[in-house]
Design goal:
With 243 residues, the protein is mainly alpha-helical. It is built from 9 helices and no strands. The radius of gyration is 20 Å and the shape is globular.
């Protein structure tokens, strides 16, 4: 098998910089394209930002949600993302730095509206992050970033496997890689018995599905970095944060 190939319908492994390209071309957040891009950023990053706010500033649930929404609104209103320079570092670090500056400004402000006295601008997922005791703000952000990215990747993988009529292989991947208990993942023998396959089919199918999942995650991260070195660093931090 060649590197990046997969018999389960692999992805184009070439390097992509889709998000950076969109940010650098964007002239106005009020356009449909700008709104769509902001919604994508909100979907991917609001939970890491919420987690950072809760840990860094010891905010309540409602205050943290409000500040998260206001942070994204401020990016749009101040055109902050138009000044982002890909050469200065990763997009994830840019967001952390911008968030910290925003929170310091908010904390200093004496003219701020009382909580609950304004209209929320964005719809947030009701499922809030579960914070881990002892996390630093950076760890809270990165761990939630990893969880969010993995959850997104699993959803994409599920749909892709369904379209290829390989739902059984996805179930094997789920049982083995996502939901194994304290005793560890089930054996190939047990998986083969449950799903009516040979052990060879289980082994090969699990390998192919894991490879496809890795490619899905890799391609997503590639949208937010500039080169292969940054991509590999982000992948390493992703798997470290998810542990």
């Amino acid at each position: 098998m060649k590197e990046h190939d997969t018999t389960t319908g692999g992805l184009d492994p070439r390097f992509h910089t889709t998000l950076w390209g969109e940010l650098l071309r964007l002239k106005d957040w009020r356009t449909p394209e700008g709104r769509e891009l902001l919604n994508r950023l909100l979907k991917q990053y609001w939970k890491p930002i919420y987690a950072y706010v809760r840990v860094r500033w010891d905010k309540s649930n409602e205050d943290a949600k409000d500040l998260t929404q206001e942070f994204f609104a401020s990016l749009m209103e101040r055109d902050a993302l138009q000044s982002v320079d890909p050469g200065r570092g990763r997009f994830r670090q840019f967001l952390k730095t911008s968030l910290e500056h925003f929170l310091i400004d908010e904390n200093r402000s004496q003219t701020r509206q009382k909580r609950g006295g304004h209209t929320r601008r964005f719809q947030l997922d009701p499922d809030l992050p579960i914070l881990s005791p002892g996390d630093t703000p950076e760890q809270a952000f990165d761990r939630e970033w990893a969880r969010n990215l993995f959850a997104w990747g699993v959803g994409v993988l599920r749909e892709r496997m369904k379209k290829m009529k390989k739902e059984t292989l996805f179930e094997i991947f789920r049982e083995c890689a996502l939901e194994s208990g304290p005793a560890g993942p089930p054996s190939y023998t047990e998986l083969a018995r449950r799903h009516g396959l040979s052990e060879t089919d289980v082994r090969n199918g699990l390998h192919q599905t894991r490879e496809l999942f890795r490619l899905i995650i890799r391609r997503k991260i590639a949208e937010y970095v500039l080169d292969e070195d940054e991509l590999l660093a982000e992948l390493k931090e992703l798997f470290d944060s998810a542990q």
